[in-house]
């Protein structure tokens, strides 16, 4: 199975999850070096975990619906 050759159609609303996921990881990594964001680690980790699980679920659901 080559995941890079599979084509899907995604709506803009579905891209919000992956953007939130990526943004929370960037903030988490960036805040590792600053004490100001230290209090937000649990919130960022929860946001990241929830969006990763939700994104993977939607991706798998979309892939199953497009199989012939």
Keyword list:
single chain, 68 residues, mainly alpha, 2 helices, 68% helix, elongated
Task: Note down, in words, how this protein is organized.
- It is a single chain.
- With 68 residues, this protein is mainly α.
- Helix content is 68%, strand content 0%.
- The protein has two helices and no strands.
- The protein has helices spanning 12-31, 41-66.
Largest beta-sheet details: none
> Considering DSSP H and I runs of 4 or more, what fraction of the residues is helical?
55-70%
Instruction: Look at the helices and sheets and give the structural class.
Output: mainly alpha
Order of helices and strands: HH
What is the residue-mean pLDDT, rounded to a whole number? 80
Kindly state the number of beta strands.
Answer: 0
The assembly state of the depicted protein chains is single chain
Q: Which range does the strand content fall in?
A: under 5%
**Gyration radius, rounded:** 15 Å
Topology (elements, then pairings):
Layout: H1 12-31, H2 41-66
Helix pairs in contact: 1-2
């Amino acid at each position: 199975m080559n995941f890079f050759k599979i084509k899907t159609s995604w709506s803009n609303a579905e891209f919000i999850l992956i953007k939130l996921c990526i943004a929370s990881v960037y903030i988490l990594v960036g805040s590792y070096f600053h004490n100001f964001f230290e209090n937000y680690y649990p919130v960022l980790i929860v946001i990241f975990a929830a969006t990763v699980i939700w994104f993977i679920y939607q991706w798998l659901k979309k892939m199953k619906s497009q199989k012939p």
